[in-house]
Write a structure and sequence with these properties.
The chain is mainly beta. It has 3 helices and 37 strands. A hairpin with a 2-residue loop joins strand 14 and strand 15. The N and C termini lie far apart (119 Å). The N terminus is likely disordered.
Length: 480
């Protein structure tokens, strides 16, 4: 009899073990959890992104075992305790039932959770802005409480000017280019990159003339028409196109975007992004002075724009363009971005001749080589250095930057920024600025110039101190 009972018990145990081992979701932890109870949830209504706290019993402490759904849309579980679960209202949630499941035990609240419709952005008045600019956002479900709205650009908080359900206005904070993030209540909306102090370059289009086969559809304007289906095709291997900025302003380039001619994308390899303030170079890229800002290293993507961040320097270029030594200027689109500023003025270098002890390293060229460790040391006590902008070119000077010879900064005291339109500029000139105190060494000092007259000849003059200067820079708006 005992053997019969033992045999039957063994069969039951083996059978139960077989059933449990065959159940795909079997977990010993599940078997140990009792049935859950649900008591309440709070708040009863909220926007997507808000936290909701659910109370009850037997929830355990394993977040991975918990599933909470808002009308069937699963929510993120942020924390779990035996009598409390905290979740985040999902973006796609809708008003309806709130259900809680822990392992295999599932309950549903009788009360509905009411979803406040989430804010949605339809448009921005601009994403290329300056510090302090007012930006208008249009959309829906913004509410009317300004204290409920928070906006940051590059993690710097903006001032909220006004809020209503379909429009928000804010003031651009003192920050740099970065991601736009808006919070309405607990809801977070990440927007586009705001170009702070950066603008898309426009102006007078210039470049090579004509096109392959005299096709008007492939001339340079096809490269800036906003249509990736059109393309530029020069009438030879060399091609170039870009902008001369309006009003004499220049751009400090910070970013470019380009899209190749899809059938000949490889022709963009080796193309150069150039900046210049030399009109002769803009008219003929094989002449004059220019800086290469970027060289395209490989075949660009044919599915989307290639975007390249440029290292911003101090030079503002009045002309910016893309140059192809080969490849016929083949591209679909080119876009230039940067900080629009007054450009540095350049031209033919003018100044005194020679140097102290005939040292070639201390002649006037040392004042414009961009190196603070080199300096000018004239052969006599007086001297000067500057530019002749050239025949037909004049500019309104707006800024003067300078740095002294490090060992003799006092020698710049009394030095003058002069300008003239007379070829006899040393005898017929206007003093735009006089240096009245000893400048700091190993750094630039800066003077703002308020003079409406436009000049061709601009130079720094020292009546004593052998024109000891490390660097001079002149900035202004060209009028011709």
């Amino acid at each position: 009899m005992k053997n019969s009972i033992l045999y039957k018990t063994l069969i039951i145990v083996i059978g139960l073990g077989f059933v449990l081992s065959c159940r795909e979701d079997f977990d010993p932890e599940i078997a140990e959890y009792p049935e859950i109870t649900i008591e309440n949830f709070s708040p009863k209504m909220a926007r997507p992104g808000a936290s909701v706290t659910i109370t009850g019993t037997n929830f355990g402490d394993r977040t991975e075992a918990v599933t909470v759904a808002f009308s069937g849309v699963e929510a993120e579980v942020t924390s779990t305790e035996d009598n409390e679960i905290v979740v985040t209202v999902p973006e796609q949630a809708a008003t309806g039932n709130l259900s809680v499941k822990v392992w295999l035990s599932e309950k549903q609240f009788m009360d509905e959770f009411i979803v406040i419709p989430g804010a949605k952005i339809a448009s921005y008045s601009s994403t290329s802005v300056g510090l302090g600019d007012t930006v208008t956002i249009t959309g829906t479900n913004f509410g009317s409480d300004a204290d409920d709205v928070n906006i940051t650009i590059n993690e710097v908080e903006a001032e909220i000017i006004s809020v209503n359900d379909t429009e928000i206005q804010f003031r651009v904070p003192d920050t740099s280019t970065g991601i736009f993030v808006m919070k309405v209540g607990a809801q977070t909306i990440e927007g586009p990159v705001f170009l702070v102090g950066i603008e898309k370059v426009t102006g007078e289009l210039f470049g090579h003339s004509g096109s392959w086969g005299n096709n008007p559809d492939t001339e340079i304007d096809a490269g800036v028409d906003g249509d990736i289906e059109t393309f530029v095709d020069a009438n030879g291997s060399v091609g170039y196109l870009g902008y001369k900025l309006d009003g004499g302003y220049g751009v400090i380039p910070t970013m470019i975007r380009f899209f190749p001619r899809v059938t000949h994308a490889g022709r963009m390899v080796g193309a150069e992004i150039r900046g210049t303030n030399d009109p002769s170079n803009a008219a003929n890229p094989s002449s004059g002075e220019y800086d290469v800002l970027y060289t395209i290293p490989e075949t660009p993507n044919t599915e989307e724009f290639t975007q390249v961040d440029l290292e911003a320097g101090n030079t503002a270029y009045q002309y910016i363009y893309i140059y192809f030594a080969s490849g016929g200027g083949n591209l679909s689109e080119i876009e230039f971005y940067g900080k629009i500023e007054v450009p540095k003025l350049t031209g033919t270098l003018i100044g005194h001749s020679g140097s102290w002890n005939d040292n070639p390293d201390t002649e006037i060229i040392a004042a414009v080589d961009g190196d603070l460790s080199t300096f000018v040391d004239g052969a006599t006590s007086s001297g000067y250095v500057g530019y002749d902008l050239g025949n037909g070119r004049t500019a309104v000077v707006t800024k003067f930057r300078y740095a002294p010879r490090a060992s003799h900064p006092a020698r710049m005291v009394g030095g003058e920024l002069r300008a003239s339109n007379d070829p006899d500029y040393l005898n017929n000139f206007t003093v735009l600025h006089t240096i009245e105190s000893e400048p700091g060494v190993d750094e630039y000092s800066e003077a703002e110039i308020n003079e409406a007259t436009s000049y061709r000849y601009i130079y720094y003059y020292s009546s004593s101190g052998s024109c000891n200067v490390a660097e001079v820079e002149f900035y202004g708006l060209e009028s011709n």
